[in-house]
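TL;DR need structure tokens for one chain.
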Amino acid sequence: MRRHSVITERNVLGAVKMFRWVTRESLELYFGGAAKRIKGLEVILPKLEQAGKLSVELLRGVKVYSKPRKKKVIPVSLEHEAVCSEILIRLWRCRMEESEIFLERAFRGFGIVPEGGLRYSEERNSMLIFEYCTGSNFNHGGVMKSKITRYRKYLPDIEDKVKRNVSVLFVIDIGHNRVKEFVRRMQPLLDEPIISDLTSEPRYPFFFTDYQTFKSVPVGKALSAEIYFWHDGKEWRLTNDAQSHLGTYQKPFIQGRLETP
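>> reply
TL;DR here they are.
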């Protein structure tokens, strides 16, 4: 059986509906684990588009897909939406077998809403949520500091609902050295631990990297790459034992709603 023979129209529709907006390249990562052409997608996507089963917008000449809506809605930043889908896919590809995908809407009502997240097994007792920040947002006043402050306030509420220790990854579309400098400037805030209600132990849950470095990591290795600045200003891995499953698509378990306080 060929690697991509599993892909059907139903698979593609399910994947596109899961994400807010997604490119064909990200779908290639999702289904195939690599940025390589998948003939099935090249046939199925135009077919679904012509049938009106997909909504399509252009981003610098590249088609970006979403589920059709009764009223056409174009996001404030189509690029932001597409990158968020790519980041989520790259993180999911590291531990497909045990990752439970949490979509953005699952966090509404907590006072801070990440782009998405992945909850891992009870044995690991961990969950990773992430924020993507564009260069313009990063340069806009105290946006990043405000996000960190709000996560410090609301992270215990999120942890109480997901029953995991939650780490927060910030992927920022600026230079690597600028991320390093930002972490240095934020060190007084980042050095204040958060006390976990689950374990009663102090934790430092924030990690930072730049988008280009994150994107350059081989698919399936995002969690184990030593590219994430921690509160101490040094670069660390998010885990030591991530397992990638390249080329083997598995249907994910998706959590789209949480009961909020």
